[in-house]
RabBD domain-containing protein
Amino acid sequence: MGRKLDLSGLTDDEAEHVLRVVRRDMKLRKKEEDRLSDLKHELEEEGARCLLLAKQCGFNEQCCIRCCGPFSFFLKPRRVCLDCRYNVCKACCSYRQHKNGYVCVFCHKSRILVLALAEVTRGTVVEPVPVCGDDIER
Ligand SMILES: [Zn+2]
Ligand SMILES: [Zn+2]
């Protein structure tokens, strides 16, 4: 435990290589942090926008809170997001088999953000997760 970076036993080439890897790792982490702060900002704006829309009487009864498109029985069926409880259209949510319900893109992104932030805090860099997972309903 508590291994330190000891370069004394390495040749110059090896030491150079190790340093390059470390630098690359730091760069990756910085990039990941930037990406997460962008995502966080985006989610905050979306949250504020959605609160405004939800205040408009009856808006969410007729229109998707995410894309603002009007629901229609065949073309844009209405679903309820399990997390935020807003009405969303089929295109703005995905089916979660293990929850037996729908989660909207916004809540899905929020989850990714929380998970990714936890990873960054733990010090490991995760590969960017695609916003729509394999379990999306097509
Ligand atoms: Zn929508
Ligand atoms: Zn939601």
